[in-house]
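Handover notes (outgoing to incoming on-call)

Open items:
1. Probable malate:quinone oxidoreductase: sequence verified, structure written out, both below. Nothing else pending on this one.
2. Nothing else urgent.
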Amino acid sequence: MSEPVDVVLIGGGIMSATLGTLLHRLQPEWKIVVLERLSEVAQESSNAWNNAGTGHAALCELNYTPEGKDGSVDPTKAVAINEQFQQSRQLWSSLVEQGLLDAPKTFINATPHMTFVRGEKDVAFLRKRYEELKKQPLFAGIEYSEDSRVINQWAPLLMQKRKKGEPFAATRVPGGTDVDFGAITRQLFDHLAGEGVEVVTNREVRKLRKNADGTWRVSYRNALGKTPGSIDARFVFVGAGGWAIKLLQSSGIPEISGYGVFPIGGQFLKTTNPGIVAQHKAKVYSQASVGAPPMSVPHLDTRVVDGEASLLFGPFATFSPKFLKNGRITDIVAQVRPGNLWPMLKVAIDNPSLITYLVGELMKNHKKKVESLRTFMPTAKDEDWELIQAGQRAQVMKKDADKGGVLQFGTEVVTSADGSIAGLLGASPGASTAVSIMLGLLKTCFPDRIDAWEPELKSLIPSYGQTLNGRPDAARATLAETARVLDIDV
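Probable malate:quinone oxidoreductase structure tokens:
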């Protein structure tokens, strides 16, 4: 067996691309190998058509500003997510200026973020949310209106032929974005490959085993010829989407015990009709259906992929036992272990509304889905919209001391005690906060190096180690500078 490499990154998505980029900048002499099971990178959750490309900054997503029992609105999580997204914007800006990413228009475009609600209760909530967020420096410029004429100027498709007398309200942040994470991922890997990083496709990692010397044996199969192979590494990152749990379980690290994942697929209605697309430039979110997971909040989105604008509406939940779009039907069963069986069963028992929601979604045909769209766009016609299949999301289920098991939304990094292996579980808002997640991973897995790395990290991400929201002048300056570099000034 040849000398171990320094790093193996499993999975060709935005997480591995981000971590690989950071590590290569911090330790350019390290040998880094990327293993992707498909024939190209960015084909699963990072692919533009497998995610909504919102550039999650909590500007419009209501689930990040929960309402308390006393009726108050808590902005804490929204602020935290926005802080994380600002780190992503700063890194992308640095990489654009250094020529490591292509022209910004190839992956990011200015697109206002809006929230639109109907009914007195939701209008009252949105008004309170606006009052809280407008105080936050990172949310400067947020606008609120209950005036149909104003909302019609913001997003005409929301108001055309809407019934009179119905209470409604909207917020708008002009500085929102549409992000093509597939494009970012491909560009980052192209640069890494040009710098000597091995980016190897058609390699399906099957097993992880720790060697006696503390390195990891990464066993894989060539997807083309089915021939086996292996590589030893001093550090392994598992960024394999839904398959991460399978590989972490194979590693035998005790930290993965008690975790399971529940796969949820999605479909979107899509139109490229230029007459419709021209009337809507925004990402408009609303309230989720009862029982729906936060990532299933309905939204009508402008998308720009490969320079072409379209509109997406959804998502509509689908079910598949696969953990990836290109996974296996045995995935959901193969994850079961003695340590996670009860937590997963408890999640099923405690979340009947989720099951009801999924069944209801599965019963919707194309006509019913367009009817759902009409709550946003009253003039929507069946023939203008086609259904497209989005990616698979694997929601985290984990052991809980009080409840036995909980369904956790968002992402979670699972790391071995010695920091030699780490993997990412979960879904939204993962891609948008990839930089923040990977910075946290660096601190956890490389505690003896992180202080020496700090100057380089600050050169790439000026707010590294600090928050922006508590420093209004810094927040304002950072937002303006990244908007300038990324060509998203509004």
